[in-house]
């Protein structure tokens, strides 16, 4: 029976003399069938239907019939009558029954005490007790009545004691405590331990499939609560309905069947956290998947947590250097900022995020890389890159692969953020990469459609904006009173054929503090990273740049814009004046300098030296194909022969005039030597 009919039946209970009035309606429709035909015809106006209702039917039921006509549900009248009859029929007296599980049947005295207990708890002295033998409970009894369970078994005592001790010892670093103190902790816990045989709310699965289970019988579960299935699989309450709950599963649903038992835990979904997670690869539940054993945890954080308040936030003013010249010079990212990386498939989005992680080596920044819906082989390659560059030591990889169920892909970014928050509230700076949120939205769409939520634009549910906003708002730079750390977020979004006006890209663009737009045409033309200078932006701007970088990069965007405009107008012209030729040569040199080898981030000092030399036209008269090699040679020369200049840039973070002059002089001297060596070699 459809749910709408049940809802209408519930409304019908409010109608006076509903049963007799409903019979009157049925009699009238039987006598004049044409009325029912017209009421079900959508082409007949509502005014005409209301007029007929007012003239023909009893006044007590008129409003109810008008609602049916307004909603186009008059055809459900038979189903509504049937639902109403079921709703109002006097329930047959069902004999109350309790299930008693035991190893050894209870004695007469024990059975009498059990009867008295059940009579008091269930307010029914005539409750029937059905026995069931089960050797696995070791000894004692378990009583189940309806959706409640009372556990007095030996196995239940063992499980509860073990859980109690685990909770008591969690967070205590046992390596630093003597054996005597551990024994004293255990003694105190056992002395304080009392068996909690009180009722547990238990439900039953009525439908399961595609990582979703609908559960009956749990009436008091809250959104986001963890529930436990009898096969050991965990789930999270994602939908709370009138007569059932929808649960997303954090494991395979092959062992869960209709009739499987489900127990509430009373806990919010969370993840273990701690310093020992650094250098490890974990799944969306915090369990290690790198084969290196268990991870010692220092605490437990909920995966869903409120974002820091405005009072607890600080303005973004400290650079989070990516090591990529085109980004650090024109679209700087600050600690606590959220900068979107957006572009088509295979345009280098992940490469930018990986180079940024590699560039944090030695800068006391914790990195969290969240892989959502990617192939396991792709994640393995990224982990190998991190290991090869000694970057895994300060990085945590949270992986929810394409083969994982949609619920695990859904919670993965929240779990990664919970790990990041652990470090942020200890005063550390964290960089978190979400790769990518397009697949995250697809996973949430799959879950929502299976939970029968209404689809909206592009079949995404209406709350998909809130899905990403509540995630990215947790990235911030907090005050010293609130912890003093920061989370810098680099969410990645994959577009289809460069369509940034699609639903998910526009949502995330509006949430973040700027975007780095990667263009396919630039990528295939060899301009890598393929950053589109016109569409990319950082809404933090110069506040997240050092003074040295700000001075060195002053006019680069204008120079590039002028070069692109001039290149269009001059591509068919052969007669150019000297100034135009110089400008074109300078623009070509800048475009070549913005190309950067993969896995070779530049330090702030190297970027400043490159930009100062470029603005002094050191690269302009070089052949384009030799600029990259010349730049690398120039930086090596500065590292060997001009370490004092690099030292001053690193210590002062400023570009004094004498330092600028020294850079230009040293660059010109190196250029002269290079040309002489080249000519001498020829």
From TrEMBL:
PROSITE patterns reported for this sequence: ATPASE_ALPHA_BETA
Q: Does the keyword Membrane belong to this entry?
A: yes
One Pfam family, short name: ATP-synt_ab_N
- Please give the Gene3D superfamilies that the UniProt record associates with this protein: 2.40.30.20, ATP synthase alpha/beta chain, C-terminal domain (1.20.150.20), N-terminal domain of the delta subunit of the F1F0-ATP synthase (1.10.520.20), P-loop containing nucleotide triphosphate hydrolases (3.40.50.300)
ATP synthase alpha subunit C-terminal domain ranges (all copies): 545-669
Query: Do the record's keywords include ATP-binding?
Result: yes
Q: How does it sit in the membrane?
A: Peripheral membrane protein
Site feature Required for activity, where: 536
One cellular component term (GO) for this entry is: plasma membrane
Q: Which NCBIfam families does the record match to this protein? A: ATP_synt_delta, atpA, PRK13343.1
HAMAP family given in the database record: ATP_synth_alpha_bact, ATP_synth_delta_bact
Q: What is the designated name of this protein?
A: Multifunctional fusion protein
Q: Which species expresses this protein natively?
A: Wujia chipingensis
Q: What gene name does this entry carry?
A: atpH
């Amino acid at each position: 029976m459809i749910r709408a009919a049940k809802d209408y039946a519930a409304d019908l209970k409010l109608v006076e003399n509903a049963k007799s009035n409903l019979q009157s309606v049925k009699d009238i429709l039987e006598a004049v069938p044409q009325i029912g035909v017209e009421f079900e015809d959508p082409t007949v106006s509502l005014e005409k239907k209301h007029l007929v209702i007012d003239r023909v039917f009893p006044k007590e039921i008129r409003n109810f019939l008008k609602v049916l006509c307004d909603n186009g549900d008059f055809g459900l009248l038979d189903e509504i009558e049937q639902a109403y009859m079921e709703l109002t029929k006097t329930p047959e007296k069902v004999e109350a029954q309790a299930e008693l599980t035991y190893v050894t049947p209870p004695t007469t005295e024990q059975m009498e005490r059990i009867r008295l207990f059940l009579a008091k708890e269930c307010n029914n002295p005539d409750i029937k007790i059905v026995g069931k033998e089960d050797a696995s409970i070791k000894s004692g009894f378990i009583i189940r009545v309806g959706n409640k369970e009372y556990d007095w078994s030996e196995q239940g005592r063992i499980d509860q004691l073990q859980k109690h001790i685990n909770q008591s010892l969690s967070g205590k670093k046992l390596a630093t405590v003597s054996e005597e103190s551990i024994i004293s902790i255990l003694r105190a816990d056992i002395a304080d331990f009392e068996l909690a045989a009180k009722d547990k709310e238990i439900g039953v699965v009525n439908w399961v499939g595609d990582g979703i289970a609908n559960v009956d019988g749990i009436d008091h579960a809250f959104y986001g609560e963890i529930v436990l299935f009898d096969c050991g699989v965990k789930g999270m309450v994602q939908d709370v309905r009138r007569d059932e709950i929808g649960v997303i599963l954090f494991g395979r649903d092959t062992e869960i069947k209709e009739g499987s038992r489900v127990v509430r835990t009373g806990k919010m979904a969370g993840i273990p956290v701690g310093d020992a997670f650094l250098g490890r690869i974990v799944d969306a539940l915090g369990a290690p998947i790198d084969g290196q054993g268990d991870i010692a945890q220092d605490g437990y954080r909920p995966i869903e947590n409120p974002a820091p308040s405005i009072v607890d936030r600080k303005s973004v003013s400290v650079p989070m250097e990516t090591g990529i010249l085109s980004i650090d010079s024109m679209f700087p990212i600050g600690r606590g900022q959220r900068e979107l990386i957006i572009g088509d498939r295979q345009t280098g989005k992940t490469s930018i995020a990986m180079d940024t992680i590699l560039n944090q080596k030695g800068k006391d920044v914790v990195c969290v890389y969240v892989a959502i819906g990617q192939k396991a082989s792709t994640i393995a390659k990224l982990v190998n890159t991190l290991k090869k560059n000694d970057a895994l030591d300060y990085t945590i990889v949270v992986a929810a692969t394409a083969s994982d169920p949609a619920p695990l892909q859904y919670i993965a970014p929240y779990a990664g953020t919970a790990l990041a928050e652990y470090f942020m509230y200890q005063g550390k700076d964290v960089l978190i990469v979400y790769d990518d949120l397009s697949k995250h939205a697809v996973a949430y769409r799959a879950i929502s459609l299976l939970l029968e939520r209404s689809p909206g634009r592009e079949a995404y549910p209406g709350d998909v904006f809130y899905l990403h906003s509540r995630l990215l708002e947790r990235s911030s730079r907090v005050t010293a009173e609130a912890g003093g750390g920061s989370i810098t977020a680099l969410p990645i979004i994959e577009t289809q054929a460069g369509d940034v006006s699609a639903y998910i890209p526009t949502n995330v663009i509006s949430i973040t503090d700027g975007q780095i737009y990667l263009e396919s045409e630039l990528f295939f033309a060899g301009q890598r990273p393929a950053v589109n200078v016109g569409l990319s932006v950082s809404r933090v701007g110069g506040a997240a740049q050092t003074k040295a970088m700000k001075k060195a990069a002053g006019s680069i965007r204008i120079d590039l814009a002028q070069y692109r405009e001039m290149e269009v107008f001059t591509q068919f012209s052969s007669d150019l004046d000297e100034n135009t030729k110089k400008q074109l040569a300078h623009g070509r040199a800048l475009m070549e300098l913005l190309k950067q080898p993969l896995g070779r981030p530049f330090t702030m000092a190297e970027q400043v030296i490159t930009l100062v030399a470029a603005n002094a036209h050191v690269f302009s008269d070089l052949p384009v194909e030799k600029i990259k090699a010349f730049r690398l040679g120039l930086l090596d020369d500065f590292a060997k022969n001009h370490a004092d200049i690099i030292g001053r840039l690193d210590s002062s973070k400023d570009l004094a005039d004498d330092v600028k002059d020294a850079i230009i002089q040293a660059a010109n001297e190196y250029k002269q030597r290079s040309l002489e060596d080249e000519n001498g070699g020829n």
